[in-house]
Amino acid sequence: MEQNFNLVFKTSFENDSFPELQKYCVKLLSKNPDKTFKLLNLSSISEKYLISLIRHENFKISVVKIWKHIIKWGISRNSEIPSDITKFSKEDFNVLKDTLKDCVSFIKFTNLSPKEFLDNVLPYREVLPEELYIDLLKYFLNNDYKPTDFKRIKRYCLNNFDSKIITIKHIELISKWIDKLEITDRMKNLYEFNLILRGSRDGFTSENFHEICDNKFRTITVIKVKDSKEILGGYNPIEWKTEFCFGHSKDSFIFSFINKDDYILSRVQNEKQAINYYSRYGPSFGNGDLVIYGGYEHSFENYANYCKKLSYEKQIRQSADKFSIEDYEVFQIKKFSFNDNIHEIISGKFKL
Asked: In this record, what's one Pfam family (predicted)?
């Protein structure tokens, strides 16, 4: 495997079909990064795959090592740049800056020690966006410094999510629904939407769903209906379980989007039947209001899913016909925490 690691790495990150292979590559890189990175032909690794690696939840190496390898990658992509920084020209810095412009946003510079920043980042200050460089200087020189620009934080929360189904506009609207606001109201809280399941990546069976989502609180499910522009979904403020019963909630809701401007919001009426825990179901709400049926071996992609009006205010589909799922995603949400995300905010990825 190690002899062909470059090919294995590229193959595993080309799509989401090889999650176990991705985990293997990330584990190998994390265990011995200096040795394993040498097995990679850095110049052949695309920016997309490199960013996927940096962002991978199991990628556990120090930030200073990540930064060093990012620099090596950038230089390897430009044969005209010398490997010795003391020989860099102004143009060399500009070329490297342009090469690294998207990667830099994912480096958690605030996890560096002041000495690591001084020795490893400061020499390359010309490749950093000016705003980022100034913020980092303030951060490392002033222990009380916090860039609390609300607009930037809001933009970070709304942009920093991974979905193939919904957009930023959907996220903002759903966030208002969680806080029981009107569409014209200003947002009250900022929420992070962390993807924990995607059908096309993790599978379309009830077993897949419960294995990943059981015991997870505060989740948003979004569903792309096959052969349609419809998006269905629901908010579960309590945990998912595998039981032959219902979960009680007064705050859950379900919804549908026909297009970006046409939607239906339906809040729970029968609080004792808010969330359906039946083992053969995927993420399901009410006593039939939004049912994702998989059986024991069947896939949600079969035409067995349906929506009725029983436990919620409104029926979210105009048709009671059964439908198939093209893809679906489950996000776990949490209120934005400044301290947990200071490195992303300081990075200035989402500029005003």
From this structure: TLD
